[in-house]
Amino acid sequence: MDETAVRAGVGAENAPVRFDTKIAVLLRDDLEPWQRLNVTAFVVSGLGTVSPEVIGEPYADADGIAYLPMFRQPVLVFEGTKEMLTTAHGRALSRSLPRAVFTSDLFSTGNDRDNRAAVRAVGTDQLDLAGMAVYGPRNAVDKVLKGARMHP
Question: Which residues have a Cβ under 8 Å from the Cβ of 144 and sit 6 or more positions away?
Fold first, then answer.
């Protein structure tokens, strides 16, 4: 590396970080704004439990106050029709990618036990999906989300 690049701060430590994995959320396009936020928060919360590598290091501010670690990479949010969500869910299953789902039934439950019971009560092909999160190799996640559009 030449001296000019070193002085400019250009080097391996300043190079953009590229991930070979992707974290993505797919939301049904007919959800209310509060539902979109709620679904996104719920579905991403499960990814770090089965894929701990998605979690970065803890944070601290200049005064030494500690903060919880977060995802180490961006979360991309997409939207699509109910049919698109069903198709994407099937693709994620066929690729055995880590995934979390939020069904429409969960909007009327109030706790974790009832949430799990609501999902358990419905067969895979009959789930009324409001949203899902998926994590895996970038190309595999891209295939799962094929046809979805970025959330506005």
Answer: 24, 88, 91, 92, 95, 97, 134
Q: What is the pLDDT of residues 55-74, one digit of tens each?
A: 999 999 999 999 999 999 99
Query: To which residue do tokens 């506005």 refer?
Result: 152
Instruction: Report residue 126: phi and psi, to 5°.
Output: -105, 0
Residue for token digits 């903060």? 67
| Among the listed residues 14, 66, 50, 42, the one whose alpha carbon sits nearest the alpha carbon of residue 135 | 50
Task: State the residue for tokens 């049904």.
Answer: 28
Claim: this prediction has a pTM higher than 0.90 = no
27 and 43 in contact (C-beta within 8 Å)?
A: no
Q: What is the pLDDT of residues 2-19, one digit of tens each?
A: 333 333 445 567 777 788
